[in-house]
């Protein structure tokens, strides 16, 4: 009949971007007679995530708490993106340099604990809060006939938005005050970025001025 122990914990692991955010376009979809393509894909690669969370249990199974998390995602599919610019600009060579996606989030919510054995419990949580997301800056260096043109830059953008996280896991106590967790969760936010770009000599190729896709991940 005892309430579960209230806790504070540290966690880390791998985060897999899902939906359009983690997808990559092929080179042919990045060219357009109009010169711009509002590509919905985000090119986010699997990244690392770390969190601090804790909860106070007010009953046999339920508690209230919260989580602070940071996640970082590199980009993939850059060869395809670079080739798309090269074809659109009709130049000899393009090279891309870029930053990372970064997400900070803070979310309070409800925690659940169900004992399965003397030292083993099933845990779950449902959290709602805010996240602050920044997009990577992407710079395209252009070379044609041995001459370097003015680089094309998609500038970094940031936005704070609503977020939620739901997950479940197992907790095993190795001593009276120390436990090991194995957890998985689903994270959602939809920032709605306005993205600035440098002025172009050649107004062709992919040019994103807004990105309003959900950023979701399995962690």
Walk me through what this model shows:
This protein is mostly beta strands. The chain has 1 helix and 14 strands, in the order βββαβββββββββββ. It has one helix at residues 78-89; strands at residues 7-18, 47-57, 62-73, 93-98, 101-115, 120-134, 138-144, 147-148, 152-154, 158-173, 179-189, 193-194, 210-211, 215-218. The strands form 3 sheets. It has an 8-stranded antiparallel barrel. A hairpin with a 2-residue loop joins strand 7 (138-144) and strand 8 (147-148). The longest helix has 12 residues, at 78-89.
List its traits.
1 helix, 219 residues, 5% helix, mainly beta, single chain, 54% strand, 8-stranded antiparallel β-barrel
Instruction: Give the proportion of residues in helices.
Output: under 10%
Overall morphology:
elongated
- Rg, rounded, reads 22 Å
User: What's the average pLDDT?
Assistant: 90
Number of helices: 1
Summarize the model shown.
5% of the residues lie in helices and 54% in strands. The protein is mainly beta.
Walk me through the topology.
Layout: E1 7-18, E2 47-57, E3 62-73, H1 78-89, E4 93-98, E5 101-115, E6 120-134, E7 138-144, E8 147-148, E9 152-154, E10 158-173, E11 179-189, E12 193-194, E13 210-211, E14 215-218
Antiparallel strand pairs: 1-2, 1-14, 2-3, 3-5, 4-7, 5-6, 6-10, 7-8, 7-9, 10-11, 11-14, 12-13
């Amino acid at each position: 009949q005892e309430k579960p122990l209230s806790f504070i914990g540290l966690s880390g692991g791998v985060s897999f971007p899902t939906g359009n955010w983690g997808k990559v376009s092929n080179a042919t979809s990045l060219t357009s007679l109009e010169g711009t393509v509002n590509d919905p894909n985000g090119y986010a690669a699997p990244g690392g995530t770390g969190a601090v969370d804790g909860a106070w249990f007010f009953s046999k199974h339920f508690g209230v708490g919260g989580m602070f998390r940071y996640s970082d995602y590199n980009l993939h599919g850059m060869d395809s993106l670079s080739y798309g610019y090269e074809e659109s600009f009709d130049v000899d060579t393009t090279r891309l340099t870029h930053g990372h996606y970064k997400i900070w989030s803070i979310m309070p919510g409800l925690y659940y604990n169900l004992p399965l054995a003397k030292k083993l419990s099933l845990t779950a949580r449902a959290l709602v809060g805010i996240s602050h997301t920044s997009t990577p800056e992407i710079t395209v260096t252009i070379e044609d006939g041995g001459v370097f043109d003015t680089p094309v830059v998609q500038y970094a953008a940031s936005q704070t938005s609503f977020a939620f996280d739901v997950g479940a896991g197992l907790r095993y106590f190795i001593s009276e005050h120390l436990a090991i967790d194995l957890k998985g969760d689903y994270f959602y936010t939809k920032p709605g970025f306005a993205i600035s770009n440098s002025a172009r000599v050649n107004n062709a190729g992919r040019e994103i001025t807004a990105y309003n896709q959900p950023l979701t991940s399995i962690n």
